[in-house]
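Dissemination and training. As part of the outreach component of the grant, students in the summer workshop were shown how a complex can be specified as a set of sequence lines and then modelled as a single object. The example used during the hands-on session is reproduced here so that future cohorts can follow it. Participants entered these lines:
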Amino acid sequence: MTYIRPRRSILAAVMASVLGLLATACGGNGGEGDGGPVTLNWYVQPLNSTSIWPDLVDAFNKSHPDIQVKLTVGPTNVDTVRGTLSTQIGSGSATPDVYEGDVTWPAQFAKAGLAVNLTEVLPADFWDRFSPGAITLAQYEGASYSVPSWTEAAFLYYRKDLLDQAGLPVPKTWEELMEQAKQIQATGAVKDGYTWQGAGYEGLTCDFSEVIADAGGGITSSDYKKPTMDTPAGAKALNFLKETISSGVSPKATPTFQEPESLNDFTAGNALFMRNWSYAWAITQDPAQSKVVDKVGMAPLPTFAGQPYPGASTNGGGGMYINPHSKYQKQGITFLTWLTDVEAQSMFASVGKVLPANLKAQTPEAQEQVGPVGEVLAQLNIVGRPVGTPAYSQVSRAVFQNVNAALTGSMSVSEALKAADSEIADALSSAG
Amino acid sequence: MRSRRRGTLLSAPALILVALVTLFPIAFSVYLSLSDVQAGVDGYEFSFTGTDNYATALQSSAVWRALRFTALYTVVSVTIEILLGLGIAVIIDRMTRGTGLVLAMLLIPWATITVVSAQLWSYIFNGVYGLANHVLVTLHIVSSPVTFLNSPSGAFLALLVADAWKTTPFVALILFGGVRAIDKELYSAARLDGAGEWRILTSITVPLIRQAMITAIVFRVLQAFGIFDLPFVLTNGGPGSATQSIAMLAYNALFQDLNIGYGAAISCVTTLVVVVLAVVFLRAFRAENVHG
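and obtained this result:
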């Protein structure tokens, strides 16, 4: 039986190292000592190629020796981030202390106890720094769970060289846009008239929210009690989107397009018009990525004939939330107050090239720094998605899956609207 | 006896570890599926709701649609992969040179992470600048680019191609192991008796590699039924919800809607289906063994 000896010693060694690992794992989680600076963990999503996040952290840490912000930049896919944060915070983790979340999350995160009610902890006059619309669109049951940090919305991008050449104005209605597109496509100057996002994902819900609002309707009733897709407005919106493809104005592959595909089509010089967010501006003006530098203009989205101009624009971007399990909520509030004040907000324009959320930071200088976005943004008719229900993710999926099925022709328009309504009704009733 | 007890004792830590990482999560997700889970400021709160989540799942048309898609996808993809894999295995078996090189090359698709290969396939099947369209248009097979992912059947086909590319080599390698073990004299004897290639394949090769085949089928069916990453990246369940697998539905419920109990119920239903399938296959295999 001597052969057992070496095995036993191996087993002992393995057990010892496992125990050792466990011990270090447990010991590594030590708290902050008293007196030293507090480490505040801040989780954000990539904004663009600028150094805005680390620059903000440096500026804050320099001016606040007692709080040191530690930055984590997560992945770009907002749904992946939701999965990560909801499991981490839901299981009681104290970090991240402050996190950036999507504009569609407040109701879901509030209901699930994943975010601090900021209306309760911030003074009432704090909110004066933002436009009231930016606040109400992100509220759940009258309370705010996130503070806006920068402003994002949808725009119409157009080829100003081609419109000038043809002597055409920037379109104010969808009908006009279709006519102009067909006219210029017929000359062979562009292959596609209008590119937008028709793939089955959150972006399609944004695009659809806009056209259904233009048609005078909405996805749900404003009290979130019942779905309103299967209505004349819903049919008008969906028929219009289908027509952009069937008429050849939008590419046949539109039902597979997300932002990058539509942007590629536009920056390759293939399209006359594009619906996209403000982030796309810088890319259309980058000679390394774009063939249409200096040929592009931005305007509010059109609407249907007979409706007041401009058409609806979905708001996008994120807000900053505080983790309810954070040990440093007070410091988190100090940080958010600083982040939304004029100094930091001006950096969003000068460094990040995006429009700040703080009204006082939306100066002419800031507008110049961010390009035409700055001029056009003030004119937009911002319309939110139905994010006031905790079941928003199901509502949105019911919208984009069924609209996408109708766009590809695997469902008729009326079938798709009915199916969407029945799925939205289920979602709303389950949310209570 | 003494050594057996010692054996049990020595393997106990490993067994406990295995139990901890497999049985505990399974039991916990069954518990979750029977509960209404609400996250609160003090962490999760569980309230027992019995089979409510299961009732909701079984009444949901989305669940049935996903089950239908997943089942069809499993049957078609595994059939294709077994047939192709068998062909490849027989061919490699006959190769006199370069067998090692071919085997190594076969491993490349299998070793490529699905998320990466699915992303590459999405470029290939892209309706505007995709490689597949370039080839089809250049060869004059189609006159204008096809938007594969625009139709349910096109998307299904794209998934099958991507799946077969990745997993046929896995099937081929398992079957090759079986084919290699066949005594080559059997082939010579059959030829002497005037048997054709087809007869040799169906009467000698296939019956003798049955064990390898069952192994390959069981592995592939279990994997195919749990398919998530490929449709998640390549089609995102679209067009509409035509290629939404049952695992994607569970993911949506768990991580998008934060409906933990409901998501757990969908996962448990999937697990149940897979376990039943596995038992049926293994029974069938055992029965065949007894008769054979």
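Chain B touches chain A at residues 6, 10, 13, 38-41, 43-44, 60, 62, 126-129, 145, 147, 149-152, 236-242, 244, 252, 255-259 (CB under 8 Å). Students were then asked to discuss how this feature might be tested experimentally.
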